[in-house]
Design brief:
Strand order of the largest sheet: 1-5-6-7
Structural class: alpha+beta
Low-confidence stretches: none
Number of strands: 7
Number of helices: 2
Helix content: 10-25%
Length: 136
Amino acid sequence: MSNTAHLNLPVIAAAQSQKHITHNEALALIDLVVQLSVISNSVGEPPADPTTGARYIVPAGASGAFAGYENQIAAFDAGAWRFIAPGTGWCAWVESAGGMQVYSDGAWGALVCCCRTWHRSGHGRACHPARGNRFK
């Protein structure tokens, strides 16, 4: 079976039987990673009674079911933990931190606003807080 290049979704083969299984698997993966919001990026051991849909970024030194999955997305789905390796540029809202994280160079880090850089170069004046939003 082949998979897509970016989200690693399973692709239905031309003569494949039970196509609904592959299709449903792809939908489940999309549901887990699109508009990604995780509960925490610092929980090193899975909760004892997770709810379906709970997602975490696995930190370094994790144990239990999270062991060996550093920086991956741990998602509780269909009664089991699934682990999804992020791609460069993936972003996630981290609920416990109240902010965005971006995956780059093999690690998650804070998403930094580019407005100040753009303003210094003469671009992005609409997002400068002192000037207000010119697009209102």
